Amino acid sequence: MTTEQEGDALDRRIEDLLRGDDIEAAVELVAAMHPADQADAYQRLDGAGRERMLALLSAEGAAHLLEHLDEDLLEDIVEGMPRASLARVLDLTDNDVAVDVLRLLPPSERVRTLSTMTTAAEIAPLLGHADESAGG
Description:
Helix content: over 70%
Order of helices and strands: HHHHHHHHHH
Strand content: under 5%
Distance between the termini: 43 Å
């Protein structure tokens, strides 16, 4: 089997597990994947599949996933995630990813989310720098 065929088979397996009732098997499969591979699989899923996959991940797992997604997918996740959950996830991401995600939020939601983060003291100063600058 080629790498592409293996990837297609894995995608089908993930989709089957996400649509089925064997939540434990779905959690085990997704948790066993490298976050970059999770991100690839996440990108290929439809909206409902993405929601189900995200729901399987712990806060730490979601944090690792966010670190490997492009901005469009980050924005989709941010739109649907409760802010308290988002704050917990962002506390577990790299600071630059947390800043990128916070910048996707309207200012009032950014402040509210940041205020509940345990890493706010590290993150808040980075928000003041332009994204393409050394500080950003």
